Amino acid sequence: MIEFLRGTIVHTERETLTLEVGNIGYLIYCANPFVFEKNEQDVTIYTYQYVKEDVIRLYGFASRKERGLFEQLLQVSGIGPKGALAILAAGAPIQVVSAIEEENENFLVKFPGVGKKTARQIILDLKGKLNDVIGDSVSTVAVLTDEDTNETEADALEEALEALRALGYGEKEISKVKPELKKEEQSADEYVRKALQWMLSS
């Protein structure tokens, strides 16, 4: 298994990014590729290799704990890689774990593709088994924390809105949260994190 890859992001799309490592480009599926800085040097991405029948894919994460939660979610009946990524994209691992431990079905059903039956199955299968994830409140969307950025407020906001679209949110939902985001100048990843928190709590 490939533990992690470290290199330069040379291309980003809605669900994937291409990481160049030693003149080799690795296609990696991520919860939200847009929060990684394109062309950033020495980006470390923790990976999970998914193999099933004729499908071989690399999934990427900002931390080992995020990858661990992804692996646990794959053990739940009815949740595949796409569903697990959607849950990671829409909430920080510590929030997801807390919802599972507290049996908060109302929180879990807010994730794309998760209905009441699946939420109940997640709780039944994973409650009490996520101690390794609970130990850290790393946010899936807060991959970069460098405040010394040259982004303008408008560019950062637009990048964040594009990331939300990539996560599957419609223009109606985005238009509701946009005024909230404009109140304070932030980096793109901070905008995304705040937007997701607002959407999940509303």
UniProtKB/TrEMBL annotation:
Biological process, per Gene Ontology: DNA recombination; DNA repair
UniProt xrefs under SMART domains: HhH1 (SM00278)
Pfam families given in the database record: HHH_5 (PF14520), RuvA_C (PF07499), RuvA_N (PF01330)
MF-aspect GO terms: ATP binding; four-way junction DNA binding; four-way junction helicase activity; hydrolase activity
Spans annotated as Domain III: 152-202
Domain Helix-hairpin-helix DNA-binding motif class, residue spans: 71-90, 106-125
UniProt keyword Transmembrane helix present: no
Principal location: cytoplasm
Keywords of the record: Cytoplasm, DNA damage, DNA recombination, DNA repair, DNA-binding, Hydrolase
GO cellular component: cytoplasm; Holliday junction helicase complex; Holliday junction resolvase complex
Family matches, as CDD domains: UBA_RuvA_C
Source domain of life: Bacteria
Function description: The RuvA-RuvB-RuvC complex processes Holliday junction (HJ) DNA during genetic recombination and DNA repair, while the RuvA-RuvB complex plays an important role in the rescue of blocked DNA replication forks via replication fork reversal (RFR). RuvA specifically binds to HJ cruciform DNA, conferring on it an open structure. The RuvB hexamer acts as an ATP-dependent pump, pulling dsDNA into and through the RuvAB complex. HJ branch migration allows RuvC to scan DNA until it finds its consensus sequence, where it cleaves and resolves the cruciform DNA.
Subunit (UniProt): Homotetramer. Forms an RuvA(8)-RuvB(12)-Holliday junction (HJ) complex. HJ DNA is sandwiched between 2 RuvA tetramers; dsDNA enters through RuvA and exits via RuvB. An RuvB hexamer assembles on each DNA strand where it exits the tetramer. Each RuvB hexamer is contacted by two RuvA subunits (via domain III) on 2 adjacent RuvB subunits; this complex drives branch migration. In the full resolvosome a probable DNA-RuvA(4)-RuvB(12)-RuvC(2) complex forms which resolves the HJ.
HAMAP family per record: DNA_HJ_migration_RuvA
Domain remark in the UniProt entry: Has three domains with a flexible linker between the domains II and III and assumes an 'L' shape. Domain III is highly mobile and contacts RuvB.
Protein family: Belongs to the RuvA family.
Name of the protein described by the UniProt record: Holliday junction branch migration complex subunit RuvA
Organism placement in taxonomy: Bacteria, Bacillati, Bacillota, Bacilli, Bacillales
